[in-house]
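Entry:
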Amino acid sequence: MARKAVLEGGKRDEIIGTAMKLFFEHGYEATSVRMIMNEVGGEIGMFYHYFKSKDMLFDCVVERFFRNYRERFEEMISGCDTREDFVRAFLPMYEKSMEEFGQIRGNVHWTVQLALHDGTLQALRPVISGLIDKWKTADSMPSDILAGQLLYGLSATIHSPEFEKMDEAEKKDTILQFIGRILG
């Protein structure tokens, strides 16, 4: 018998939210469908009503993770009319994100960490592209390419040991200098 399509919301969303919490706390391998459903207060059959497999659920968790992060990022940059505004808003969000990620890092395999990192950069790419368009740079290169260069370069910068040793003013200056090198 064919499965009915399940719309967003309700118990399905609760399962995804609970799975995200458990995957990040215990890791993918150590989190069972039974653990998720015990936390939700449902039976295993309910799980299979919404998802074909744990892998399918994990895909939904990752999709929500990126969507939530992108939405937070979009909200953060909505008032960034200048590069300086962006850096002032970006650094606190980065620090908070790293703190949140630090809580789950030990439980997530390095390959998943890399996939989350790359997925985050890809999710932010259109947002940064829009910000570059808003800043009206003189560069003739398409904003999507510039956004990729900016995101991957910023990622390399902010994840370097040297950056971690800087005080807040040095971090701001470093990011502004980098943006200036990419965008002119």
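The two ends are 59 Å apart (CA to CA).
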